Amino acid sequence: MTGYVVVDILPTKSCLPPLSLKELMTANTLHRLLSHPKLRLAGRAAVVVCFIAITWLALWTRDFQDFHGGGDKLNHFMAFFTLALGLRCFWSRRNGLVFLLLLGYGMLIEIAQYFIPGRYASGLDVLADVAGIGLGLAAATMLEKLAGRSWFMDDGSRERADFY
To answer: Are 30 and 146 in contact (CB under 8 A)?
Structure first.
């Protein structure tokens, strides 16, 4: 017994030495990492946790605007950037579908905030959401191009179901 636990998330039969950033950014290594079922499952779980956390922060907590110095729009941007990147990488390759889903989610949050005491709805928040969604989708598309192929299919083919 060696006293430590090795978590196998890489799709290899042997233990790999630590990868340098240059090695990590090669298309084959990036594809292997992003297409591995354990990483895909972990990514999907992280997206669900993000949705839950963002919903809770938007609807059931007091307004933190005075706490963080008015960076509310940055919070919206980062939340929706993260959701767009996660949904695009681990759920669906359809940019239009991800965009509409997140836009609807952002608008529902703003509508719900209108009815919550101490909260308010803002069109500028929706614009910050749209900016985050757009840049998140662009980042995911760039990652896919960097990998040289879709990371959703182990064989590298472009055909797959929209949602797993």
So the answer is: yes
Find the Cα–Cα–Cα–Cα dihedral 135, 80, 113, 117, rounded to 10°. Answer: -110
* Cα 151 to Cα 142: distance, rounded to the nearest angstrom: 12
pTM of structure: 0.71
E strand spans, the chain = none
Q: 70 is written with which tokens?
A: 């008015």
Which positions ≥6 away from 157 have C-beta within 8 Å?
150
pLDDT tens over the chain, length 164 residues: 444 444 445 454 444 456 666 665 565 666 666 667 888 888 899 999 999 999 998 888 665 555 555 578 999 999 999 999 999 988 888 899 999 999 999 999 999 999 988 788 899 999 999 999 999 999 999 888 876 655 544 444 444 444 43
Token readout for 18 is 């630590």
What is the token pair recorded at 128?
A: 């910050």
**Which among 109, 110, 108 has a CA at the least distance from the CA of 121?**
110
